Amino acid sequence: MEGWDPNTKSTLTRIPLLTTKAGPRDGAAWTQRLKEEYKSLIAYTQMNKSNDNDWFRISASNPEGTRWTGKCWYVHNLLKYEFDLQFDIPITYPATAPELELPEIDGKTQKMYRGGKICLTVHFKPLWAKNCPRFGIAHALCLGLAPWLAAEIPILVDSGAIKHKDDAATSAES
Amino acid sequence: MEVGFKALLDDLDVLEKSLSDPALINKLRSHVENLATLSKCNPHRRSKVKELSSEVVDSNPYSRLMALQRMGIVDNYERIREFSVAIVGIGGVGSVAAEMLTRCGIGRLLLYDYDTVELANMNRLFFRPDQVGMTKTDAAVQTLAEINPDVVLESFTMNITTVQGFETFTSSLTNKSFCPSKEGGSGVDLVLSCVDNYEARMAVNQACNELRQTWMESGVSEDAVSGHIQLLVPGETACFACAPPLVVASGIDERTLKREGVCAASLPTTMGVVAGLLVQNSLKFLLNFGEVSPYLGYNSLKDFFPTMKMRPNPQCSNVACLERQKEYMLAKPERDAAAKAKMEADASTTIDEGPLHDDNEWNISVVDDENEKDTTKAASSSDTLPEGLTRELPVADEYEKAIAIASGSGETEEEDDLEDLKKQLEALNAA
């Protein structure tokens, strides 16, 4: 964690840690884990809103809590770039981290695997392995997705791989 | 097939006369004619072989395999047809392994992958440029069925790390329709893990630990110049989760794990060697010849092939692994009895020879050291390390205490309702 910036560090210390080590097939223990996940996400979302740093929406799209969908966005040069966000909870969770997917960017960057799965192998998965089972979805978003967006979106915009919807509309009209 | 095409053309003629607009019919006709032409180009697939023959003729696809039996390497090569092998990951290693097993005449192959063939895969063996765009499983079945139609091929295009994919994976492994008479709970004899990521390996590990399934794991380094294979018998050898990930065990600062881009390097040579080592170990395991390596590494820069054996971790984080270890320990008396019976058989052979000397003037006798063995067994059963060795990793007690403290405070949270929390998050999302 030494290399992370002070803002991320202070944010991380205020996201509640999880204690239940349970995966999707563990019945009541998984329900308990889901409760902790929700508390963690609620706390993180509230923190972001109070700091005027809101940047994602996420919710479970099935009752079992194994499929999550939402949106995330990044502001670059005063323009907001928004993307669909989705991921499955892997069978071996929380021993393994969820694979966060941005399907709209699939194929546009080499920092991505098939289906829009962002590469977290270097900057996040070692952290996850060290902090299992204390890290959860909120931590994956804070330490995995947020830095990835901050690093990659400016490059993709500058290279023209991603266009803002207004720019896209303009080019469509012309 | 050609008869079918001809019938189709005749049907089209009839249709053409009964319809006012012949444009669509002509289009269909040219399409069928094109297909008929393609089918003629395709070489005819050979018919299936009912029984393996050792006859040495050009038309016998198994003559050189059955020669292993004649040369005394394998007792009964025909048993190869009774075996089922599952291959997870049809990439640079898995596809080559599948082809090797198909050419060996394996009975049944189960293939798992969710990726598609792309031109970037042409640096490795097996897939061809004309298969770009197909799923790897479909392309593999297409090629393997032509190489050897005797092999039963089942393909699953899915991601085994998801809940649904995992259930399909485990149920297909336990499906015994291919060889119902076989004893044991599993429907396959061996699982080969040829995946390229940690998450998929952990999923295979979980499935095999739960099913008591023997499997082999393979891997190739990111710089494409080394690799390894590993035999995993749940409870008897280390499972994939027994050793913590390197970054956790070594305390390495994750900042030093630098990598530009995502693309790992790969060579058809290293992939081919690892696939060869994997299938060779599999054949030895299935057909009982040679010595099955518990672990075999390959360092191509120095042509170094290290081997070693890894015991399971008594504090493994995988619950199923701990259960298998317990079963293995409970079965220890049976294994000891079997070993003792074997020793007695050997001893009886020795006794037949009789004493070397007819007289024993000084009454010298060899004393049985059974007591010493018992002491050794007691020591090993208590997990005491041999003299001179120390444990590298800390025990897990401290971690468990921390969990206990945390779970204590967790009891208060039991009163919270999952639905309430869900609604709270939805409300925040809407705001």
Q: What do you see in this structure?
A:
The complex is a heterodimer of chains A (174) and B (431). Chain A is 39% helix and 17% strand. Chain A has a single domain (4-165), classed as Roll (Ubiquitin Conjugating Enzyme). Chain A has five helices and five strands, in the order ααβββββααα. Chain A is an alpha+beta fold. The longest helix of chain A is centred in the first third of the chain and has 23 residues, at 28-50. Chain B has 431 residues and is α/β, with parallel strands linked by helices. Helix content of chain B is 44%, strand content 9%. The longest helix of chain B is centred in the last third of the chain and has 22 residues, at 332-353. The radius of gyration of chain B is 29 Å and the shape is globular. At the A-B interface, α2, β1, β4 and α3 of A face α6, α7, α13 and α14 of B. Chain B: This is Ubiquitin-like modifier-activating enzyme 5. Chain B: The active site is at residue 263. Chain B: ATP binds at residues 92, 113, 136, 159, 197. Chain B: Belongs to the ubiquitin-activating E1 family. UBA5 subfamily.
CATH architecture level-2 label of chain A: Roll
Described by the principal axes of the CA atoms, the overall outline of chain A is globular
Instruction: Give the oligomer, counting copies of the same chain as homo and different chains as hetero.
Output: heterodimer
Distance between the amino and carboxyl termini of chain B? 64 Å
Biggest contact: A-B, 49 and 49 residues
Let me know the average pLDDT of chain A: 86
Give, in order, the helices and strands of chain A: HHEEEEEHHH
If you consult CATH, what is the topology of the domain at 77-336 in chain B? Answer: Rossmann fold
Give the strand line-up of the largest sheet of chain B: 3-2-1-4-5-6-7
Q: How much helix, percentage-wise, in residues of chain B?
A: 40-55%
Kindly report the CATH topology of chain A. Ubiquitin Conjugating Enzyme
Active site (chain A): 119
Protein name (chain A): Ubiquitin-fold modifier-conjugating enzyme 1
Function (chain A): E2-like enzyme which forms an intermediate with UFM1 via a thioester linkage.
GO molecular function (chain A): UFM1 conjugating enzyme activity
